[in-house]
Design brief:
mainly beta; 6-stranded mixed β-sheet; 37% strand; globular; disordered N terminus; Cu_oxidase_CS; repeat; secreted
Amino acid sequence: MGSQLSFILGFFGLFLLHKLVPIIFQSHTTQPKVHYYDFVLKDSNFTRLCSTKSMLTVNESFPGPTIRVRKGDTAIINVHNYGRYGVTIHWHGVKQPRNPWYDGPENITQCAIRPGHNFTYVVFFTAEEGTLWWHAHSDWTRATVHGPIIILPALGTTYPFPQPYEEHTIVLGSWFKGDVMSIISEAMYTGGRPNSSDAHTINGQPGDLYPCSNQTTYRLKVKPGKTYLLRIVNAVMDVEIFFGIANHNLTVVGQDGSYLKPVTTDYISTTSGQTFDVLVTTNQDPSLYYMIASPLFDGQYTPFDNSTSTSILEYEGDYTPPSTPVFRFLPGCNDTDAAVSFSKRLRSLASKEYRIDVPKTITTTMLITTDMNHIPCPNKSCAAHGDRLASSLSNFSFVTRPIDILQAYTRNLSDIYTTDFPDVPYVIYNFTGGKGNASEYTTPATRVKMLNYGEQVEMVFQGTTIVGPESHPMHLHGYSFYVVGLGYWNFDYGSDPVSFNLIDPPKVNTIMVPAKGWVAIRFVADNPGAWLVHCHLARHLIWGMSTVLIVKNGPSNDTSIRPRPSYMPSCSSS
C-alpha cells in the first residue's frame, strides 16, 4: 500500500487545483485509480409533505452524490462544512486497512469538522465489491447527509452473475418535517423519545401514499424482458424496512459489499445500515408496478413511523397505463419472523474466485447484551416516568469524550477511556424473560475492549428485555464479519454452536439482532486502530448503545496503524 500512497501524494498538487466534482483520472491500464470528490455541506431548501424546510445536505442533493469506484481504487474526498454544526463523514462498510484516521465517527477517530472548515478524507477500497454507502456520523445529521458508494469489479474481472442490462440505485431514507438537530436536542434535554419520522422515502421522495407527493414519486423506467441490478441502501434512521416490487421476484446476489449465493424471494428485509444488490427481471405484462418500502418495528409501547413509501417501476411500450399502479402487501410491521427467515437464507458465494476464511480457532469470546435502559434524573424530572431513556451494551452506556479515542490511544493520553469493557455481562440472568436481578439503570462510562493483532474473535450479541425487547442492527467499523449463527431466546453455549454455519456464512458489516434473540459473528482482528461497534438505530446510538474495539499494532509496519495525517480537525471548541 506504500506505493499507492506515493501515487496519491504525487497527484495531490493537482487535486488542490481541481474544479470539477468529481474529477476521475482515466487510464487505459488495469492499475487502480484515484478519484477526487468535493463534498460541500450547507443548508438547502427542500419541499416534501406540503411544506418546505431548510436542511443540511451535500452538494444540495438528497440523497447525496454517488461515489463510484472499482475494487482496488482510492477516493479522496474534500469535505467543506458551510453548515451550522460540526460534522464528520463515515464510509460505511469500507475496511480502511490500517487507516482509522479517515473512518469518520465523531469523537472516536476524529473530532468534528467545524463550520467554516474543511477536511480531506482518503478512502481505500481494497476488499469490498458491490454496494456500500457514506453518511454523516455526528448526532442526527446522517438523516439528510448520506449517499451511495458503488464499487465495481476490478478492471479485467466481472460480476459473478450475468451482466445486467442496467444498474440503478435505490436509497431508502427518512423524512422529518421538523429540523432533525432540534428534534434530537429536545429529546436529549427532556430525556424522552425523539419524534418519529413523518415519512419514509425512496430516492428522496415519499411516494403516492403521502399528501402532496404523487407528482414527485420516483419512477424507474424499464424495458420488457431485461434484467436490472438494483443497488439498495437502507439509510432509514430508526426502523427496519421490508422492500418488494409488485408481481416481481427479487434475486439477491450481494450484501454489504460482498457477493452471495443467489436467493430468489418476493421481499427483502433490510435493517438500518445494510445494503443489498438485487436482480430484477421485467417479465410481467407492460404496466406500472409499485416498488414498496414498509417498516418493521418490534419494540413495545414505542411510537414509530408506520407508513409506507412507494415508487413506480414503469414499463416502456405501447399500452394504456392503469389509473393506479399494481400494489402488493409486504410482511406486517411486527413480523420479526419474516425478517429472521429472510436473513437465514443468505449465504456467501464462497467460490474459487470469491473465497472466504471463517475463523475456527477462536482466541477471544465475547457475549454482549443489547439493552434498553433508564438513567435516573434528579427529582424524577425527566420524561421517561421521571427517568432518562438510555441504551447500552452489557449495561454500559458509552460516553463520548471531548478528545477522540484514536488520538488518546496513539498519544497515550490518560483519563479518556478505560480498557475494562467486559467479555461477558457482570450480571447473568434470563436475558429474554424479564430483567431478573439486572438493573434497568445503566452505567455511563467510556469503556473499550483491547484486542491483540491477529486475535480470532467470536462475538454473540444477545437481545434482552430489561425495559423492553427490540431488534438492534449492530454495525462494526473497520471490519466485515461472518454471521455464523442467528436464533431466538437466550444463546446456549452448549447447543447453539453445533448449528453454526462455518462453510458459507454471509460476510457483512451490519446485522439485525432480533428482539428476544441473538446473533453470533466471527472475524480476525487484523486491522489495527480504534473501531466503533454500535446499534445503527439513531436514537439507540445517541443513547449509548456502543463501545470501541482497539486493535493493537501487529509485529511490522505493514500490520501497524498508518502515521497520523499532518492535519486532523481540532478537538478544541475555540
